[in-house]
Design a protein that fits this description.
heterotetramer, A: alpha/beta, seven-stranded mixed sheet, five-stranded mixed sheet, 13 helices, 14 strands, B: alpha/beta, six-stranded parallel sheet, binds thiamine diphosphate, binds magnesium ion
């Protein structure tokens, strides 16, 4: 695949998996012409009309069709153009797809992928086209949730999602589509449920997903200049969740900052924070901190977006606050004293 | 249908169809009484009075064809040949339930017999049926999917999106609206701006309005049979409205007292079983034999219920299985 | 319409309607060029070519009537008399935006002028329009709601539920499908199993199939006017399909190259402005005067744009207002 | 109102508010005949057909109608029969109702209530009729979320919701409908966003919502027998959230156990835990613990329900684990030592 953008990683991986397994079949709105985000370009020409289907604007029918076909053994990949539109087909996603294997006592399998553009990134898409909704899906057991952070990650995780025998939601952050990376040649395949240590560090653990992994990396660089060593974790998927990776890292650093794009009212970051508060209690020498999107619907004017969007700056100051914090009396103050 | 499957098919004859309707009727009556005895945990929606639709439709399907329905789905599972014992065990919360105790009355499913499940969100399974038919079309298997739903479901968005896409893609799916005249407590006539819930909508999808007497198993067989064969030929979907009536309330907990007595009487006179019995006698079948067949079925159903009730509960540990394809439910490490 | 409002109504005459269409055309062309200059943050969906529908419909509404539309809603806000400057400020992210910088191009709203908003989830505003009309009926105010949506929206569930309920409850709402022949890139003809996206569905709701030339402002005025008055009389809703064409791509970012050149040409020949101009000239209006009116409008729009661009951004602190009725956004203490 | 059941508290409060304000108008499926849970009995007779409207099975139209009418100044109360069905109208709830005031810059108000039966309670309703979905709504800014725990609470909070000028989702736990209580006479009205101290205690704070408040109370009684003094808080609403009440209580007890019926994967409890982990760090002498529903779709067989449902027993053992835990070295061990 060599140098790929996040966008072309989607297209190339879809092509790779369609070539590998004839059961992989695509459907979605305007996808034969490449789709609104050009993630399905050329697939109709290469694989023909039995493999790539344009649909009306009928998300319930799109997702239902994917589910029914998956029950029959196809491996459908349905495009939901913007993640916000999951709201119009939410019943099919959370009440049917997430539950049918269970409520039939395991009589059916649902090897399907729902994928599409998601996220804010201050692109001016506003409140109905700019949401990160990984947290919506995490509320409901029975769905696997993948949200890649780089072109290589996209290639490896999308391939894994398509080969997975369970329903997987893949979120493609629209502000990352243009991101370039040399992903090397050959097939990319990553395990689901294994977080990636993006950068090692000893003072604080920064946990990100999708675009916020970048913010964590950028923050880590600045913190390094201040002599603060930050470990950066890319969760890659929320379900399955690599909680061990987070807990192990906090065991080393004693501090945890979670960076999520969704509003903090109830975001995926709360799940990570709650797990740490319960299972890493003795390791924590400072409060678990979340850097989250503002608790309002997204605005559009640039100056307003800047206020509610998360940023490396916010991560940096959150970490500064934690490290400045007196650790005296803290359970693990001693062990960590030398590091400050 | 290929002759081969015909011979094996218990629904191939009018007598066989009558027998199957009787099995369903007595089975559902038994469930109703078990419910009154507090032995069914959770709601139970019975298809009492709607047996002719389930049996007539099932009688034209190949073993490899698919059907799918609603929470009122026991009849459809049984009509396809699903195991009575496993269904009863599911309803009674005993070990060996057809959904392992995880579905209950509203989600009876028997994939082994081509019945892909009972869904309890009104309208939700229509798009799923479209996907099943889409897979058959993509693979050119000649399989047909029959999707059963109620008259109240025609007002929900999923109905519109599903029938519309099936028509656009000319998919092998036959939508059968079981018009039992009521939603839960509201008569459907008061809830639609047109004369008929399904038939009056067909033209919006370029489909023919098809209405059949849903209490006449032979009529259902003929009408659904023609639609199924057309779908198999590649002529696309059909939307069929089958007029029927539920003999009891919306669920076993509902007395159905909102229904006018004379209306109930009118429909009782059209009981699909009475009519099929009369037809068979007219065709020369011995009435007393048919009665004793009924008796035998009652006895076997209640014997089965006793045996199932004697069973134990499912193993609590199994609550953690069947979420993922690996058999488990682990979501984090 | 009461004579009183007529006098004040700038859309009461064919000339006034032509003028309003020109204002919208030049305004949208300006937005298009500002978009190309990178001055519009986020997507911008323009109603270029569809002005006759917005103006024709607005011309039959009472000031207290309601309208509602999609992300392609600038024309509808302007047709109701919304403030050009405030809309431009919203599109350009300047202070004083009509939605305070929180809506952007896709959510232009002017409640003050009876335009209850632009919604960007296809189909979602049809049920909302039903609620607006329901309130008018409950209070017997005689107000009518006109709901504009695209041809692609007829395939989504919300369309079905909304039109169905409006018909069942006989609500004063007029649904106007702006059939501009395309979804985003797909021709609507390839995405429906019937001939016409809206008209072919009307009978499913007991409504008449109504089609109007959406590029003829006077025809739109007559057809929508009749439907609005019928709704006002209590005769219930109407579903109108207005044939039109977008002169540009789906959004300002789309070149629309998927559209056959001859098709584009055919429709250019039916430009609603050219046609209204010709009609006015035929009626004896001086063509050169009409041309200079156009010139004056161009000049005023670009002058307005310069002034708005000169403005500052909204106060960042205002991002925390307008979530709750108390003006704030506090969700916890 | 005197002695009321939870069910009749709903009916009586709807009647009270309809009498008080003619703008209050009801719509929903089968509600003129009293509704499936008999919460609207007699309202058609008393207020007439202009105030109580039966609808087809069209949740998107129901919720959209409520929204549109609210924009016009009515105060609609829409019944969504089972909370699970929010999934079929989720777009209207989270993308339209929650966002329209904001995205129009405050041009519209949406004084509406969406209410109906919710919750599990091991009643055999299974995976598609038994969910607690307060957490779904909490993911999206712009919605107020109320979930009462007793008949008196239902009366006071439903009245507050109907009088609120913002959209409010009221969740009525179906296992509570039969609960009886003498609620005294006169009008009931409670503030939104003020938690209730159900029982005072000094060793541990138990936080519940809706039915889990009962479990907390039952657990507190048993713990008292063991000499463990548990404070019980009823959150009443998730938005607005009375975080102060939780933090103040934890300031006194040093221990926090959150009891939520929804699956713990991402429940409302995680939001509370995350807030405590960040803002009560110095007060906590033990890990923040959540007692949550199992992370599977709900089963139906009684013996299976019992495994995934939360219970007072689970709360008791969670607290025991915390109090048994060595507090030595804990930041606040000293202050709390005397209490053990
Ligand atoms: C989306 C949704 N809304 C409401 C319900 C509650 N409900 C269950 S059955 C039913 C009536 C359905 O009537 P109909 O479609 O005629 O089927 P029938 O029960 O008569 O077989 C309703 C309203 C539901 N399950 N799903
Ligand atoms: C539910 C939903 N699905 C998909 C989209 C993406 N989308 C935005 S506009 C559009 C095409 C709509 O076509 P039409 O209804 O004809 O309106 P037009 O843009 O032509 O005015 C699509 C698919 C959306 N906004 N909402
Ligand atoms: Mg019915
Ligand atoms: Mg269009």
């Amino acid at each position: 695949m060599a140098e790929l953008t996040f966008r072309s990683a989607v297209q190339a991986t879809l092509a790779q998996e369609m070539a590998r397994d004839e059961r992989v079949t695509l459907l979605g709105e305007d996808i034969t012409s490449g789709g609104v985000f050009k993630t399905t370009t050329g697939l109709l020409d290469r694989f023909g009309p039995d493999r790539v289907w344009d649909t009306p604007i009928s998300e319930q029918a799109i997702v239902g069709a994917a589910m029914g076909a998956a029950m029959m053994g196809l491996r459908p990949v349905a495009e939901i153009m913007f993640a916000d539109f999951y709201a119009v087909c939410w019943d099919l996603v959370v009440n049917e797809i997430a539950k049918t294997r269970y409520m039939t006592g395991g009589q059916v399998s649902l090897p399907l992928v729902l994928r599409g553009a998601s996220g804010f990134g201050s692109l001016g898409f506003g409140s109905q086209h700019g949401q990160s909704v990984e947290n919506w899906a995490m509320c409901v057991p029975g769905l696997k949730i993948v949200s890649p952070s780089t072109p290589a990650e996209m290639a490896g995780l999308l391939a894994a999602a398509i080969r997975c025998d369970d329903p997987v939601l893949v979120f493609e952050h629209k502000a990352l589509y243009g991101a370039k990376q040399d992903v090397g040649d050959g097939e990319h395949l990553l395990p689901l449920g294994q977080a990636r240590v993006v950068r090692e560090g000893s003072d604080v653990t920064l946990v990100g997903l999708s675009i916020t992994v970048r913010y964590c990396e950028q923050a880590a660089l600045r913190l390094a200049e201040e002599g603060i060593s930050a470990e950066v974790l890319d969760l890659r998927s929320l379900v399955p969740l690599d909680a061990r990776a987070v807990l192990d890292s906090v065991g080393r650093t004693g501090r945890l900052v979670i960076v999520e794009e969704n509003p903090g009212q109830l975001g995926w970051g709360a799940a990570i924070a709650a797990i740490a508060a319960e299972e890493a209690f003795d390791d924590l020498i400072a409060p678990v901190t979340r850097v989250s999107g503002g608790n309002v619907p997204w605005p559009v004017a640039r100056e307003l977006e800047a206020v509610v969007d998360v940023s490396p700056e916010q991560v940096v100051s959150a970490v500064r606050a934690l490290t400045k914090r007196a650790t005296s009396g803290a359970r693990k103050g001693d062990r960590h004293a030398d590091q400050r | 249908m290929p002759a081969a499957s015909l011979d094996l098919d218990p629904l191939a004859t009018a007598l066989g169809r009558h027998r199957q309707m009787l099995v369903i009727r007595r089975f559902l009556e038994k469930v109703d009484s078990l419910y009154r005895q507090g032995k069914v945990h959770g709601p139970a929606h019975l298809g009492l009075g709607q047996e002719a639709i389930a049996v007539g439709a099932a009688s034209v399907l190949r073993p490899d064809d698919h059907s799918i329905g609603t929470y009122r789905g026991h009849a459809h599972a049984l009509a396809r040949g699903a195991d009575q014992r496993a269904i009863l065990a599911e309803l009674l919360g005993r070990d060996g339930g057809i959904c392992a105790g995880k579905g209950g009355s509203m989600h009876i499913t028997s994939v082994e017999h081509g019945y892909y499940g009972s869904y309890a969100i009104v309208g939700a399974h229509l798009p799923i049926a479209v996907g099943m038919a889409w897979a058959s079309r993509v693979r050119r298997t000649g399989q047909v999917t029959v999707c059963f739903f109620g008259d109240g479901a025609v007002n929900i968005g999923a109905f519109h999106e599903a029938v519309n896409l099936a028509a656009l893609w000319s998919l092998p799916v036959v939508f059968v609206c079981e018009n039992n005249q009521y939603m839960e407590y509201s008569p459907i006539s008061a809830m639609i701006p047109v004369e008929r819930p399904a038939a009056s909508r067909a033209s919006a999808y370029g489909l023919d309005p098809i209405v059949v007497d849903g209490n006449d198993v032979e009529a259902v067989r003929d009408v659904v049979g023609a639609a199924v064969e057309a779908a198999r030929r590649g002529d696309g979907p059909a939307l069929i409205e089958a007029d029927t009536y539920r003999l009891k309330g919306h669920s076993a907990a509902d007395a159905g007292s909102y229904r006018p007595a004379d209306e109930v009487q009118r429909w009782l006179a059209r009981d699909p079983l009475t009519r099929q019995l009369a037809a068979l006698v007219e065709q020369g079948h011995d009435e007393s034999e048919l009665i004793s067949m009924d008796t035998a079925i009652r006895i076997s159903v209640s014997g089965l219920a006793d045996r199932v009730l004697a069973g134990g509960p499912p193993d609590p540990a199994t609550v953690w299985t069947d979420v993922w394809a690996d058999g488990g439910s682990q979501w984090r490490n």
